[in-house]
Every structure is written in C-alpha cells, then in structure tokens.
Amino acid sequence: MFENLSRGGEKELRSAAVFSLYMFIFLLTELLVNARAAAALPRDLLAFAYAVSISSTGVGYLLYPLVRRAGVKSAFCRRTLMPLFVAAAFVSLSAISFARASALGYLFLTVVCMASLGCVGGLVHLDMSVSFANDRRLGKTIGCAVCVSIVAQYLFQNTGLAFAPRVVLLSAAFGLLLAAAVRGSRRASVEIERRYSLEIPNVGNKCLLLFLIAAAMTLIFSAMDISMTKLHAQGAADVASWPRLFYAVGLIAAGAIADCKDRAYLPLAIVCAMTLSVAAVSFFNTPETYAVSFSMAYFYGGFYVVFFTVSFMDIAPYTRNPALWAGMGRVARSAALGLSAVPTAALVQWGDYRVVMMVNFGLFVLSFLLFYLSGSLSYKNDYAAADIDDALKLQKFFDTYGLTSREADVALRLIRSDNDLKGIADDLNIGMRTVQHHITSIYEKTDTKNRVGFLHLVNKEKNS
Asked: 442 pLDDT band (50/70/90 cuts)?
C-alpha cells in the first residue's frame, strides 16, 4: 500500500504518515486521559468527564477553520499558532499524568489537551483531504494509517516498557507532530489556498445527511464504548488488550471495501457491521464473554471510523469551507458521544443490557433509513460521477487560464448563477467595483468580451 503511495507522490505519502502519527497520539492521549479520570475522579463523575473529553475534541476541530483564517491573514499566526496547540496538548497531558489536581482542575486540563489536539487534527484531516482529492486510494490509506496507529498503541501499552522509555517515546511522537504542524501550516497557506471553492450542487444537504449518519452510527457505538470504559475503570477488563486488534482488522477491511466502485459497497458493508454491533451488546452480561463483545465492538468501530473519515474527506474539497468539513466526521463523533455519554452511562449502570440492545436496534433502523434516503445505500453514487467530475474540469479550466482564487470564486458565480454584479458582490461579501475588476481580469485572461462569450468558452473547454 505505502509503496503504491510512494510511486504516486511524496506529498500523499507524507500526508498519510502524518495522519497515522496524529491518530497514534490522539488515541493514546484519549486512553491516558480516560484512565487518569478513572483513577483520580469519583465514580459518579466518570461519565461527565468522558463527555467533557470527547466534546472538547469536537470543539478543537471546529476551532481549526478560525485558526487557519488567522494564519492566512498573518504570517506570525501561521508560524506560531499550530505549534502552540501541539505544545499545549503535550503540557496539559503531562500535567494530567503527573500532577495532582482537583476535579475542576482535571477537567480544565482535559479541555485544553483534547481541544488542542482536535485543532491540530483539523489541519491533519484537511491536508489528507486535499492531498487525496478524487484519489481512489483514500480508503485503503485511511484504513492502513489508522491500523498502524492502533498497532503502535497496542505495542506501546502491552510490551512491558519501563516508565522512562514510554515518556521518551511519547515525547518524541509529540516532537514529530510539532514539526509536521509547522510544515503543514506553511503548506496550508500556499498549496491549500490554491484550490478553488468548487462547490457541488446541494452540497450542504449532502453534508448534513452525512453528519446525521455519522452521529447515528456513533450512538450505536456509544453504549458499547461506555460499557467497555466502565469495565476498564472497574478493573474487570482491559480496553487495551488483544481484542482491540480487531479494530485494526475492521479498518483494513473497511478501507479495502471503501475503494471499490466509487464507495458503492461501503454503506452496505457498514450496515452489515452495524448488525454485528447490535448483537455484540448481548455479550456484555458475563465476564466470560467480554472478549467476544470487545472484539465485535472494535471490529464495527473500524468500519465506522473509515466511513465517517473517508466520507467527509471526499466531499470537503468541493465545499465552500474545506477546513471545516474535512474533519466533520470527528465533530459528529464528538457531538454524539458527548451528548449521549451521561444518559448512556446511566442506562449501562442500570445493568439491563436488553434495553441497551433495543436502543441500539432502533438506532440501527434509523441509520439504515438514512443510508436509504442518501441514495439506495450508496451515498457516493449520488454526486461523485457527475458533480465532482464537473468541479475538476472547472478547476482545470481555472488553472489553464491562470485565474486567481478570488477570480475563480467570481467565475463560479458567472457560470452557476444568473446573478448580476450586485448579486455576486453580496454573495462574496465584496464591493461591486471589486467584482467588476475581477470580471474584467477574467475576460482578459480568457480572451472573451462578455459573459456569453465566457460561458461559451467554459462549455467548450469542459466538453473537449
């Protein structure tokens, strides 16, 4: 897989390596934060602390577009903000691990740590989305990259390393992420800005539907995740033990399926994995079957992580705000887990797993209906073949004639709407004189005299 990436381009290989490194740090940090919560906080606060931790990650991803905007406007912000977020995550994680803090202090450090990592994750996801735009290897790359991080985390937790080597390795990982964040911020200001806002039709509705599907799938996983966290906190089971490797199996399988026939088989495979996950709840009743339930839950987790990651990375470059949507799958996960953590924990604490299974079955039906509404269990077919192809042709046209990013924004309005100068100016939130200046420049670069001539040239180039 990675040899194919190397032949395909150094940029893609570098993006995949950074993504895998980030996921290793994120997964390990999430596990350490939750383990520390179990040891330092009263039992009745564990579900709330988990909700705070996972919600903070989503906040970080939502914060990234603002950070990126500040970096575009200021070279100083571009050089310093992302490294500061990496440093904040490392320092706060160190404080959580070694310092004694009150419950309030622990929650504050958790927010700083997970929100900072989330913000860095926004950059990493955007870089992957842009590097693999319209690339049919994205699914396998995501599956392999997260699989590598899972195996690395497993080895880190279970090879009996002494305390000092663990600290050194984790510090080195954060150091590499720091270097990647600095380089990624520079690329974001140059390479990513060169991509145009080539929105596909009705992209907002499609993104909303994907968000709802990801949230529903997360809620299915939530009961199992809370149950496993509870058992881990009680010492009855270890979430870092060998069943976690089934996560890697699910990731590899889902990644391979995702790249078949333009994602056509992925939703159906997800439905099958969800069926397995509903059945997994029944095995939480006795200690003898914990390993079975953990294995089934992690296998489903691999499928759903690949789904929401690939889905939003696919569509992000063709939205108006790629920095926001590239990591929106993580936001959906954080929102669903954060909002459901306390009630789900109460349901799990009640101890009647039959009720949990019934709730998960209802969510399974909801997810199935959402998949159906998205296009006969094939969300990709509904837009990829025509809409993304059209967007890529327009991008090639803009590159051929040397249009700037802002000129491309204006050109898109000339092509896709009947708006006059005032309408275009209002849509882009710029002045009418600025719009007229861009239109004059567009006509000069394309050697056309008016809108009719420009549209004729666009259609001619797209059909050639």
From this structure: very high
Tokens, residue 407: 């000129």
Is 225:340 a contact under the CB 8 Å cutoff? no
CA dist 73 and 268 (Å) reads 44
Nearby residues of 307 by Cβ (< 8 Å), 6 or more positions away:
214, 217, 254, 258, 266, 267, 270, 329
Count CB atoms within 10 A of the CB of residue 308: 24
Residue given tokens 């964040």 in the structure block = 181
Each residue of 231-242: pLDDT tens digit?
666 666 666 677
pTM for the whole structure:
0.79
Q: Helix 46-73 to helix 10-40 angle, to the nearest 10 degrees? A: 150
